[in-house]
Design brief:
The protein is an alpha+beta fold. The chain has twelve helices and four strands. Helix 6 packs antiparallel against helix 7.
Length: 244
């Protein structure tokens, strides 16, 4: 296992874009310090974030989170942090060129086509007052279903299950499991994986699953910065909106 300098991961007290990094560190036994930026009780970043936002030593060159401090280095931007960790953990050298490309493509696709739509759904009423939220929710679910179908085909073609068992847990595995879990958490029965046997198998049989669930159990956190109470209210309304 590569030796690492002191590591700090800074992100909001939410699952969001940083949760796969938490899973990765847990699965690979990498020690790190977590700097959780608290959320206000009403949802959204609390007083700590506005006070921190102009401190470039903490929030990086673009004044955003997550930020990873790896020894003396500060790495910003979610996808770049992922690429950095893929290399720092020695995973780049363990995969063929084609498998490294597949790994990178899967990570990019999941962040763009699953993480972002679900986050936008949970924030839509706050961001767009007066939005037709039932219509927005149905459109979001349709988009997620469509992408799950594409993942089903692609990951079967890539023989991801076999690959996953033949190597250490890597970032793409962590992100895939997280987004399948989040989709089921947010959409409930409307995102059950029975329609997607390859994805259902990857979710159930991921070598990192026990560690991922332990991370989730150790600290209850909302999916996004809306906060637990606000998200629970939204998620509770979704079945009725989607059935209408």
């Amino acid at each position: 296992m590569p030796k690492h300098p002191p590591i700090t991961l800074r992100y909001f007290d939410a699952r969001g874009r940083a949760q796969p990094f938490r899973y990765l560190f847990a699965a690979r036994g990498v020690a790190y310090r977590e700097d959780l930026v608290p959320l206000s009780t009403g949802g959204g970043a609390g007083a700590a974030w506005p006070a921190m936002k102009e401190d470039r030593t903490r929030v990086g060159p673009f004044h955003k989170l997550p930020v990873l401090h790896y020894g003396e280095r500060t790495i910003a931007e979610t996808l770049v942090i992922g690429v950095f960790l893929h290399r720092a953990l020695g995973d780049l050298a363990q995969l063929s060129d084609d498998d490294n490309l597949r790994h990178a493509m899967l990570v990019s696709s999941l962040y763009g086509d699953v993480v972002t739509p679900i986050a936008m759904l949970l924030w839509a009423e706050a961001l767009y007052p007066g939005v037709d939220y039932a219509g927005f929710a149905r459109q979001s679910l349709g988009r997620i279903h469509g992408h799950l179908g594409r993942l089903e085909t692609t990951l079967a073609e890539w023989r991801w299950a076999e690959s996953m068992r033949a190597r250490p847990v890597m970032l793409a595995d962590c992100l895939l499991w997280e987004e399948l879990d989040v989709a089921q958490h947010v959409f409930g029965v409307n995102a059950r994986l029975e329609r997607f046997p390859t994805l259902a198998r990857l979710y159930a049989e991921s070598p990192g699953r026990a560690g991922f669930k332990k991370v989730l159990a150790a600290h209850a956190a909302p999916v996004t910065g809306r906060g637990l109470a606000a998200e629970a209210e939204i998620i509770g309304r979704l079945p009725g909106l989607l059935a209408a």
